């Protein structure tokens, strides 16, 4: 069976890897000259398997109104556009902010995330996949605001190994927080969570795939159109010509929206722009060893090899991924106030990327309405975390097997 996968980000690459593992012939098409140069390039690096609550939550709309009055230092910034797509997305986002909907979507994400952790573990152990700075170092979400901690506490899942900590216990878990102890109200610790470098992970997957006869990469080739007949994709149009397919997986991140619109498939995915800094560690002292999320500032920190990755912010306002100096300045300030000795934030590598987000925060996996066209899109803030599990579920569906976990709440409803 000849399967084409559009998109060489972490979602497309894990999909290709999983399909090849199941014995299929796979052609991966990537418009850039190399893989993982877009949103999978310099994300937060967190494999946040147990902390998956969607952005849409009770209280967020009200908070967002307050943030609109702030400029560069608001965790979330909204710029209205003359765009029905944006308005429809925002309306669905507001509906998803109800507490009951948030809880339901968080449960769907948790199920997928825990499956993802198992699949990555299998690939690391059975296939000896390595070379991407993977660490099982746990995740600590710190709270500076008492009300935020009180709101989050009922969600602590001790069956998943999570623990509620006071400020002193936070410092015991992460000694680099000691200078901040007086400002902390407490934290939620998930010892089973992990971190890794997403770009390096993608490179490792590609390296493995390129050694196999069942795999072919078409790099520097943009898919410009899909040719369909009788509700089936017959071929995809590339710069180099037409490529016939038996099955097609769309994993093109935010670009999936425009690619599928001509087929009448309306994906409610909007780009949520975020920013990151990457800096060499100044030494071993006062550097976080655990993945830290500063909840009230909405900033995440992960140690990746001998570098620190700092990521944050959500800009809802368009499709460009330009660096905004005001946002970068805020990120540099917040990080240097939190872990001042970790390194030189002014000379950090700066990056911006577009999270391909659904209003509900849950990805769209599986059938698209066109018989042989499959979706693996819309992973938002959790694409690295959810990639291996999503790839495994999708390749089971294409291969005609029963998926290992339920796809309830994770599919396109038309
Ligand atoms: C600031 C920030 C921090 C983040 N932190 C985390 C984190 O800590 N943990 C986590 O799990 N997730 C995190 N994420 C989210 C994660 O990075 C994304 O969910 C994930 O990278 C999305 O992967 P993707 O493969 O869907 O998209 P992409 O990586 O964007 O890949 C899509 C690919 O498709 C290609 N493409 C598009 N159109 C075409 C076409 N027509 N023809 C051929 N190729 C095409 C593109 O060139 C691109 O390479 C973060 C995101 C941001 C922005």
TrEMBL record:
Keyword Flavoprotein: yes
Alphabetic keyword roster: FAD, Flavoprotein, Oxidoreductase
Binding site for FAD: 3-17
Pfam families: DAO
Principal EC category: oxidoreductase
UniProt family annotation: Belongs to the DadA oxidoreductase family.
Role, per record: Oxidative deamination of D-amino acids.
Cited NCBIfam families: PRK00711.1
This protein's name: D-amino acid dehydrogenase
Species of origin: Stutzerimonas azotifigens
Classification lineage: Bacteria, Pseudomonadati, Pseudomonadota, Gammaproteobacteria, Pseudomonadales
Gene: dadA
């Amino acid at each position: 069976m000849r399967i084409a996968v559009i998109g060489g980000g972490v979602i497309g690459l894990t999909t290709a890897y999983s399909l090849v593992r199941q014995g299929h012939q796979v052609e991966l098409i990537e418009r850039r000259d190399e893989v993982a140069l877009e949103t999978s390039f310099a994300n937060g690096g967190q494999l946040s398997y147990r902390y998956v609550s969607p952005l849409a939550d009770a209280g967020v709309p009200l908070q967002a109104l307050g943030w609109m009055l702030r400029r560069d230092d608001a965790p979330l910034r909204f710029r209205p556009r003359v765009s029905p797509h944006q308005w429809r997305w925002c309306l669905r986002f507001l509906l998803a902010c109800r507490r009951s909907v948030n809880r339901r979507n968080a449960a769907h994400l948790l199920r997928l995330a825990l499956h993802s952790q198992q699949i990555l573990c299998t690939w690391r152990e059975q296939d000896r996949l390595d070379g991407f700075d993977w660490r099982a170092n746990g995740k600590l979400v710190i709270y500076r605001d008492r009300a935020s901690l009180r709101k989050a506490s009922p969600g602590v899942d001790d069956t998943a190994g999570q623990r509620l900590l006071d400020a002193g216990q936070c410092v015991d878990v992460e000694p680099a927080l000691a200078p901040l102890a007086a400002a902390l109200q407490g934290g939620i610790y998930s010892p089973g969570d992990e971190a890794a470098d997403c770009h390096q992970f993608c490179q490792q997957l590609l390296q493995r795939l390129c050694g196999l006869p069942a795999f072919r990469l078409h790099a520097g080739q943009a898919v410009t159109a899909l040719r369909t007949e009788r509700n089936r994709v017959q071929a995809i149009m590339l710069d180099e010509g037409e490529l016939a397919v038996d099955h097609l997986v769309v994993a093109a991140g935010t670009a999936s929206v425009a690619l599928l619109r001509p087929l009448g498939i309306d994906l409610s995915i909007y780009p949520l722009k975020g920013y990151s800094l990457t800096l060499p560690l100044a030494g071993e002292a006062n550097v976080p060893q655990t993945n830290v999320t500063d909840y009230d500032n909405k900033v995440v920190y992960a140690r990746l090899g001998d570098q620190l990755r700092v990521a944050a912010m959500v800009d809802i306002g368009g499709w460009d991924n330009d660096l905004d100096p005001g946002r970068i300045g805020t990120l540099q300030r917040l990080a240097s106030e939190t872990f001042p000795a970790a390194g030189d934030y002014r000379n950090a590598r700066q990056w911006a990327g577009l999270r391909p987000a659904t209003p509900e925060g849950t990805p769209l996996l599986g059938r698209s309405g066109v018989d042989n066209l499959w979706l693996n899109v819309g992973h938002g803030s959790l694409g690295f975390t959810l990639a291996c599990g999503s790839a495994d579920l999708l390749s089971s569906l294409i291969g005609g097997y029963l998926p290992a976990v339920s796809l309830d709440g994770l599919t396109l409803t038309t």
